[in-house]
């Protein structure tokens, strides 16, 4: 009676012994493992009360590591995990930090999600006890909570940039074990970062971003720990930082994604109203700088690019998801590292061509798992398009890849690979880049609209298990269609005659109206209809007026203005479609006041061709600003800004409509210092050049 409980202890101890045998009989081994796991679950389930916490921990860990979630094993496994979970609820005080971290990690890995169990386990991780936890135990716990979708009650408690709860302490709030658990893990990471391994650091950061919890102090602290602090420091190691060489490719991708997501969270649906005065893309840029500092976030992402390019085998070791996550993060924050994106494009081309050669669609009889998921393809193209970084060979290769995987002779249907928002983003990206490969353009239209007949609406909704196209997808398709009509009419693709009636989620006239400014996590594109007048725009308008340039502000272009050869392009375009900041309608001359959201910040030189790219990290950044109860970031030019993709697309579309567009970058106007004569000279010279 070794366990002191009627033999249960001995049985439990038996599950702690591990034996590894080499074998080449994969199918037989899988069946034997399945049978063994079933027998273990059946035998252990009625005796779980006799198992010590560590033995329960080991049992769950073994199931998770052995990949028990095959269909035949699912029922028994779920019963076992539920039984262990109830033991945690009943005996939570007996579980050590290691037991909590490993057991929750096993649950999340095995996709067993029971909120009561997770909350009971997380209640053992408190700030008072956190010093006794090892970093892995803390990171495993918050990673499991995030993976299971168990969200803290107080998501704004750590947000010193946006939240109205700034300065509040958890002690003054009703106790929530999940919030307390996240507080414990983040406090320890800030206090002893050198004890955390790279995977543990990225798991804590990823977990916060995954559940929508912002923590500017932590993210800035970690950035300083990794790439060095700003200003004068006594310890040179603090000036240089720990570096990123210890991060795996997945770690690099998750690290970049976590920082970008932190800046995006305040502008997603369902979050609190941000204190930052700007919205949309500029709001994300400003939030990132307010949280981390412009100098520091640029340096961090420069180091991320350098690490991906130069360390541990370079980009060949990155999986598709790692490349996609990293590229998405750069684009979300408006940061372009040319050498990184150039090498990423080459890497994508090489991998996809290899897949195409080994999987010719016309000869395939058995499905082979495609190496790139739909989301990864869409995010990658979206990143290149948003940053206005052209890679024509990559776009053509992606088109061939998509045709191979889910074209007419592919093994997969379009809806098995892509969601509709992803297809819309792909089409939008092609339009931004001015490249329209026939295979992928027709594939996206078919995937989004079927044959285009109204009778297809119900079938398409059932196919994708959604309520129709999102408003962002609808606006994207309008811009795509206009670009195709002017630049690739030979494709012969068009929107349904009365689009978007019936095709959108709301099924009403709202789909024709001005789109929401809110960006969601589907990497949606931004509208090219921007109806907000800034102080900068008003000042420029006044100066132009003094120079005799008659105009109106916020001129809106709609369906009635979209003419080609004297006829409307399509009757389905909305009444408000494009806008021009300052417009002389008679002469069709417009002035666009380009603020920071119209640009990307280039982190490296075009001439950086050496084996180890050294990015620009010494450029001066902007500074904090406030007005009333709103805060923001005032960007300056470091001479390394270029127009982003949406701005370039809008310029082309307006050009097709016969408009001459003049662009005034924000830093040029600010450089005039408010001097009236200088402003007049500047505007006069612009008008003389353009008219």
Automatic annotation (TrEMBL):
Residues 502-525 are annotated as: Disordered. Pfam families: RAP (PF08373). One of its GO terms (molecular function) is RNA binding. SMART domains: RAP (SM00952). Residues 589-685 form the RAP domain. GO terms for biological process: mitochondrial RNA processing; regulation of mitochondrial mRNA stability. This is RAP domain-containing protein.
């Amino acid at each position: 009676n070794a366990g002191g409980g009627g033999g249960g202890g001995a049985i439990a101890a038996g599950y702690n012994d591990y034996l590894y045998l080499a074998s080449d009989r994969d199918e037989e081994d899988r069946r034997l493992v399945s049978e063994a796991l079933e027998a273990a679950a059946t035998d252990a389930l009625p005796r779980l009360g006799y198992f010590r916490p560590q033995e329960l921990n080991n049992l769950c860990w073994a199931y998770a590591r052995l990949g028990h979630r095959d269909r035949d094993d699912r029922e028994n496994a779920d019963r076992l995990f539920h039984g262990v979970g109830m033991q945690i609820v009943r005996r939570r005080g007996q579980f050590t930090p290691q037991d909590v971290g490993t057991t929750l990690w096993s649950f999340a890995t095995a996709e067993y999600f029971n909120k009561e169990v997770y909350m009971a386990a997380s209640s053992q991780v408190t700030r008072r006890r956190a010093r006794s936890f090892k970093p892995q135990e803390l990171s495993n716990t918050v990673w499991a909570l995030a993976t299971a979708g168990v969200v803290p009650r107080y998501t704004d408690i750590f947000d010193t940039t946006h939240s109205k709860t700034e300065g509040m302490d958890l002690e003054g709030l009703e106790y929530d074990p999940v919030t307390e658990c996240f507080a414990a893990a983040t406090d320890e990471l800030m206090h002893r970062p050198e004890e955390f391994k790279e995977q543990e650091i990225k798991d804590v950061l990823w977990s916060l971003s995954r559940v929508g919890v912002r923590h500017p102090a932590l993210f800035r602290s970690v950035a300083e720990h990794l790439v060095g602090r700003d200003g004068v420091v006594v310890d040179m190691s603090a000036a240089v930082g720990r570096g990123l060489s210890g991060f795996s490719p997945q770690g690099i991708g998750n690290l970049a994604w976590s920082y970008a997501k932190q800046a995006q969270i305040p502008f997603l649906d369902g979050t609190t109203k941000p204190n930052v005065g700007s919205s949309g893309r500029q709001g994300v840029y400003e939030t990132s700088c307010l949280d981390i500092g412009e100098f520091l976030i640029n340096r961090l992402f420069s180091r991320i690019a350098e690490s991906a390019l130069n360390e541990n085998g370079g980009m060949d070791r990155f999986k598709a998801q790692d490349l996609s996550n990293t590229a998405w993060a750069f684009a979300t924050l408006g940061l372009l590292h040319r050498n990184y994106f150039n090498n990423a494009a080459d890497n994508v081309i090489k991998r996809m061509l290899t897949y195409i050669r080994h999987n010719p669609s016309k000869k395939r009889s058995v499905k082979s798992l495609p190496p790139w998921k739909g989301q990864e393809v869409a995010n990658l193209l979206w990143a290149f398009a948003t940053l206005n970084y052209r890679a024509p060979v990559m776009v053509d290769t992606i088109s061939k890849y998509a045709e191979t995987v889910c074209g007419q002779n592919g093994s997969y249907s379009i809806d098995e690979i892509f969601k509709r928002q992803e297809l819309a983003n792909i089409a939008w990206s092609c339009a931004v880049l001015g490249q329209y490969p026939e295979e992928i353009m027709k594939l996206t239209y078919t995937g989004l609209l079927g044959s285009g007949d109204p009778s297809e609406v119900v079938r398409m909704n059932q196919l994708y298990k959604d309520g129709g196209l999102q408003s962002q997808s609808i606006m994207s398709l309008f811009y795509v269609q206009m670009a195709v009509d002017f630049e690739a009419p030979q494709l012969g693709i068009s929107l349904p005659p009365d689009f978007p009636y019936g095709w959108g989620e709301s099924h009403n006239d709202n789909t024709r109206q001005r789109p929401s400014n809110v960006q969601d996590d589907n990497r949606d594109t931004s509208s090219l209809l921007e109806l907000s007048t800034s102080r900068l725009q008003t000042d420029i308008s006044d100066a132009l007026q003094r120079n005799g340039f008659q105009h109106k502000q916020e001129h809106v272009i709609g369906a009635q203005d979209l003419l080609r050869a004297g006829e409307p392009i399509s009757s389905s375009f909305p009444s408000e479609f494009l806008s021009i900041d300052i417009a002389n309608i008679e002469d069709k001359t417009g002035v666009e006041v380009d603020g920071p959201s119209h640009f990307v910040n280039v982190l490296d030189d075009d001439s950086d061709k050496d084996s180890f790219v050294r990015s620009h990290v010494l450029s001066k950044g902007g500074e904090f600003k406030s007005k009333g109860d709103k805060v923001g970031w005032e960007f300056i030019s470091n001479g390394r800004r270029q127009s982003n993709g949406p701005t370039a697309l809008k310029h082309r579309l307006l050009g097709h409509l016969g408009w001459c567009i003049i662009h005034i970058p924000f830093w040029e106007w600010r450089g005039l210092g408010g001097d009236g004569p200088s402003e007049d000279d500047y505007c006069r010279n612009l008008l003389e050049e353009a008219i």
